[in-house]
Amino acid sequence: MPDFMSLFADLVGSIADLLEPLFHASAMAAAIVLFTACVRLLVHPLSRASARGQKARAKLSPQIAELRKKHAKNPEKLQKAVLELHAAEKVSPLSGCLPSLFQLPAFFLLYHLFSSSSIGGEANALLKHKLFDAPLGGRWADALGDGGVFGAQGLVYLGLFAIVAAVATFNFRRTKQQMAASAAATPVGDAGQQVPGMGAMSAMTKVMPFMSFMTLFTVAFVPLAAALYVVTSTTWSAVERAVLYRDMPYGAGAGALATAG
Fold it and tell me: What are phi and psi of 130, to 5 degrees?
């Protein structure tokens, strides 16, 4: 593991060296942003595949609505019938998770890299790098202890929080609109009773729009380098999903929009 981390540290350091003429003391922070963009480009084919899967599932909505009516009093048969329909149409209900799962290793690499005092038996030279006045290995708690919320370091975090809040608000509005449209299309049973098994979806409809704001907690508690990865990836995701899901029928992409990063 130390040897691998040394190679990764050298890679990030080399990128920073290339960017130093443009970004000077903040070259390492810029290198992390560029590294994140490269990771997202590599994962983009999976995001496109996920969008195609979401659209394919959306096209099955009329058939699923009929199955809900047919098996309204038997949730087990309903679940089995929906799974069989997905299998027959070669649609995977888990495809939307793949882009996020494939990004986790890159996030944890940066987290470990900027949390370790030594790499390969030597002092971690990356910890001396900063974004303006905030060390890339530091956390928000450290910034609060050195100048407070409006200190030189604290202002860096306030800027990141502002970006995350803006992106989360954008996702919130899109998700609310799409989930509301999806809820309007959800069939109900006799006497206005909701079809069995839809209670979980109703609860998800209430919670899902707020999930993007959870990124604020991540930024606050991880090293600044990892926080930069999260902020860059989250912003990329918001733009990417707005494009990929722009023609999604009545909210089928709401779940993907609510996912952070």
Answer: -135, 160
